[in-house]
């Protein structure tokens, strides 16, 4: 969770710098670069013995790869066409969307007290960002589509690791290159690739400075993609979203410091309210985990139950017939 926190905050800040300060307005191409960076760095880590590549059914992984493509692509497009504030408002809506999808499609219901703890989280982020709305139709469409796709992506990330019996690195080794291939047809459609246009990617002034920052986004993209699977595989999609809201607060603080966002009482109160909700939800989850652990420790193991049943059965035979014992 610490790895995901640090890398996710870093990639939002660095991506925004690449798009705004260095003028690289090609979000889909940047997404493809992040995916290929993830794949090649995974091959390097596997070569170093960090993990062993496992054969997985491509058909099963393809669904998650499509979700990965949509998740990263729509997130980058939303960040490109919206302010950081509206971008974060729409990201926070992923949490209730995950809860609704899991209830409707997977019959997985969240406890009422956990649902209640989500309210200050959502309200806090909305309060923090509501003063920064600069709505536009294109950006809103990308943001709404991103919420839906991201919700399914997060749910599938956890279920697929368990169903295929693989770890996060093994799964991401297949997902990243497939998602990068899926995104190829979208690059000339959503980014400017016209050779006759001076604002196209072919005329971008790539130099050592902006090239190094773009390369840094690829490294952070690798860390984000891997850590998402690690967190969701060991917790849940909702827990991952709560971690996301902690990241939201830090990203918004960076917005104040780096991008000149005006400070206000409403924004500050929203940050505090978000943190209250995060701590509340975390304490409830820890309490629930402690109760479940104590219940497992008190419950007899299946083997001991079988042994007790056998002993009682033998005692009954001894009482009813001594000849059976002989």
UniProtKB/TrEMBL annotation:
Q: What is its main location?
A: membrane
Q: Which GO terms describe its cellular component?
A: membrane
**Cellular location(s):** Membrane
Q: Name any one Pfam family assigned in the record.
A: TPT
Write the record's keywords in alphabetical order, separated by commas. Answer: Membrane, Transmembrane, Transmembrane helix
Q: How does it sit in the membrane?
A: Multi-pass membrane protein
Which top-rank group of organisms is this from? Eukaryota
User: Which residue ranges does the record assign to the Sugar phosphate transporter domain?
Assistant: 5-281
Q: Which InterPro entries match?
A: Sugar_P_trans_dom (IPR004853), TPT_transporter (IPR050186)
Annotated TM spans:
24-49, 141-159, 171-190, 210-233, 265-284
Residue ranges of region Disordered? 291-326
Name recorded for this polypeptide: Solute carrier family 35 member E3
Q: What is the lineage of its organism?
A: Eukaryota, Rhodophyta, Florideophyceae, Rhodymeniophycidae, Gracilariales
